[in-house]
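Researcher: I'm preparing a figure for a lab meeting and need a structural model of a single chain. I don't have an experimental structure, so a prediction will have to do for now. The sequence is pasted below. Please return the structure as tokens so I can convert it later.
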Amino acid sequence: MDFGASLQAATLTDMAHDPRHLPSSLPAPVDDGACDHILGLRIPDVHLPSTRGGSIGLVSATERTAVIYVYPRTGVPGVEMPDGWDAIPGARGCTPQSCSYRDDYAAFQAVRVDVYGLSTQSTEAQMEFVEREHIPFPLLSDPGRLLGSALELPTFTAGGDVLYRRVTLIVEAGRVVHVRYPVFPPNRDAEETLTWLRSTRS
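Model: Understood. Here is the structure written out token by token.
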């Protein structure tokens, strides 16, 4: 669906889909080993469009410690997600996940850690989300799955689109030093990532 049409559709519905809401009955993803190989890998030298304007090079962005949380796609209030979305383990929850990083952003800054969100969505869609939810850090658009190809990140297909599964990477000096996969529940991702960071710095 065209993104502009999606926004128009949102005004014509009764807000049936609320991406901020995380149903208690969501199926939990299991660790299938799809990210076992990532720890210790170097971040590829790719540049991705950013909601801050222009592009961000992942190597330079991770010269100091950074969190890159990779997620499938954020929703638009009132616009239904692909059929069966809530039944896919780990699919729903991108808005609560991003908002958890928004709410804890000052804590990440306090420990000198940068935060980046990354999905295959267009920068236009990400910009709408950033403005709507007041996200204070950059979201990166990777429609060609450049990061995924380099690191062999797991994906799934929904509504005809190939999307990233949810995985959180902590990167220091361009190398992955910690991997969170599967990430569940998504609204606790920031909290649990901060716990790990603080434990390594105590």
